[in-house]
Amino acid sequence: MPPYDNQNIFAKILRGEIPCFKIFEDEHTLAFMDIMPRSPGHCLVIPKAEARNLLDCPPEALSRLIVNVQKIALAAKAALEADGITLQQFSESAGGQEVFHLHFHILPRHEGEGLQRHPAPRGDMSVLAAQAEKIRAALVGM
Ligand code: 5GP
What we know:
- There is one protein chain.
- The protein has a single domain (9-140), classed as HIT family, subunit A.
- Helix content is 30%, strand content 18%.
- The protein has 3 helices and 5 strands.
- The protein has helices at 9-14, 59-79, 125-139, and strands spanning 22-25, 29-33, 43-47, 84-88, 104-109.
- Strands 1-2-3-5-4 form a 5-stranded antiparallel β-sheet.
- Strand 1 and strand 2 (29-33) form a beta hairpin.
- It binds guanosine-5'-monophosphate (5GP).
- Residues 9, 18, 20, 32-36, 90, 96-99 line the site of guanosine-5'-monophosphate.
């Protein structure tokens, strides 16, 4: 597997070089809206640790991350009034990965509604901002 490349887009978001609609941040984790959402409220949870994907992530970092994945999933489900959540993680190009910093996709789902096909169109910035705000609000007290 190739080494971690710190010029990937999520590393730039972590360094603050590129903006994002932030949902949650702690010492080890960042969560933000996906810019090309495949369902309303589609968001991403990433570790601050350098990991290309699931396959090279140190188990301790992965353990911390998955706890926050659950927390954000619960908040996104509540904020979007969703019926369920689809969780996706792609590792390496053959696995469908395009951005090579480990991330989990959280996709709020409504009964009977499919996912947008990939690549989805760029989301409306004001909608993404409003959804991020709602998910942040749902996180309060969790
Ligand atoms: P992958 O196929 O690697 O699992 O998915 C990468 C995801 O990153 C895609 O869902 C894509 O929409 C999202 N993405 C790509 N570039 C950006 C960006 O600059 N900002 C944000 N917030 N998401 C991005």
